[in-house]
Write a structure and sequence with these properties.
The protein has 304 residues and is mainly α. 80% of the residues lie in helices and 0% in strands. The chain is built from 13 helices and no strands.
Length: 304
């Protein structure tokens, strides 16, 4: 049932939870399938990353055995492992985006503000929004590190303690603040894409709806509690899943005889569980809330 047919007296949280309650079976089914498939996909990707990095793990193990023979401490270098992980990061983000787009489409359908199948435009919005928001802080952080990083030899390009050094050193914080503002301004774009717009039109609509007095206040009031809830849930679930760490580490070390592969798998296990459980609990709530908010903000503009 479309939210715009209801009187505007109901608050946004009440309307959101009403949609979730009325369509709980469909949303729970979609969320379960999406999170399950995403979990399987992440396991496959993690297995592929570990397979590609197995030579690195083997070299770490051999060096550890050699240093133990020499009775010297061994501090392993994980640079190659971080490089392999960085190369696989876009695939993990792609899985996360596809899952979020599928849940957003289902939530917009429940609100009554979506066509039957808008997965492609919603996924396109996620990609376009990422290209708009995140290059700035990444580029600024890279440039700042090239001028102020501790890896630089003396003399430094900028003298420590001077105003130019301080400004360049902390410029990534300013860039991150701008990125957060852009991200808030484009928060409603997936819901707009599910409503039938193209990715570019959805970005433009989110920008126009958010940069108003009522729109900015409502987006901020909804986004901040959801961010706190997501961060708190992720922290809690990850902590509760920490017993998986020694279990996975011992199981994999017994199976492969490689301590370092088992060590990193044990670190990843509770993190992956935390991400999946948190996504299952918070993503439908966030997508439904923003779909309801988008539906309310655009409703007055739809009437002549």
């Amino acid at each position: 049932m479309p939210i715009r047919q209801d009187p505007a007296v109901r608050s946004l949280p009440i309307a959101t939870f009403t949609v979730l309650r009325r369509h709980r079976r469909a949303l729970v089914g979609t969320t379960t399938r999406v999170v399950g498939l995403a979990g399987l996909g992440w396991l496959v990707l993690v297995g592929a990353v570990f397979g590609l990095a197995w030579s690195v793990f083997t070299r770490m193990r051999n060096q550890r055995v050699w240093y133990q023979y020499l009775e010297d401490p061994y501090l392993h270098d994980s640079t190659d492992l971080r490089l392999v992980t960085l190369c696989a990061l876009p695939l993990f983000l792609l899985l996360l985006g596809v899952g979020s787009a599928a849940i957003q489409n289902a939530c917009s359908l429940a609100v009554g503000a979506a066509a039957a199948n808008r997965l492609r435009p919603v996924l396109g919005v996620y990609a376009l929004r990422a290209l708009i928001v995140w290059p700035l802080p990444l580029i600024v952080a890279k440039v700042a590190d090239s001028f102020t990083g501790y890896h630089l030899d003396t003399p430094l390009p900028l003298e420590r303690g001077t105003w130019p050094y301080v400004l360049v050193k902390y410029s990534p914080l300013a860039a991150l603040f701008v990125a957060v503002l852009l991200r808030l301004a484009l928060t409603l774009a997936p819901a707009a894409a599910a409503d039938g717009l193209s990715p570019r039109a959805a970005i433009a609509r989110s920008w126009s709806l958010t940069w108003t007095r009522a729109g900015a206040a409502r987006v901020f009031a909804l986004a901040v509690p959801l961010a706190v809830l997501t961060a708190g849930s992720l922290r809690l679930v990850t902590q509760l899943a920490l017993p998986l760490r020694p279990f996975v580490r011992g199981l994999l070390e017994d199976a492969t005889g490689n301590f370092f592969a088992a060590y990193y798998a044990g670190i990843l296990a509770p993190v992956i569980v935390g991400i999946l459980v948190t996504a299952a609990a918070t993503v439908p709530l966030a997508c439904t809330g923003f779909a309801v908010l988008h539906d309310r903000l655009r409703a007055p503009r739809a009437t002549p």
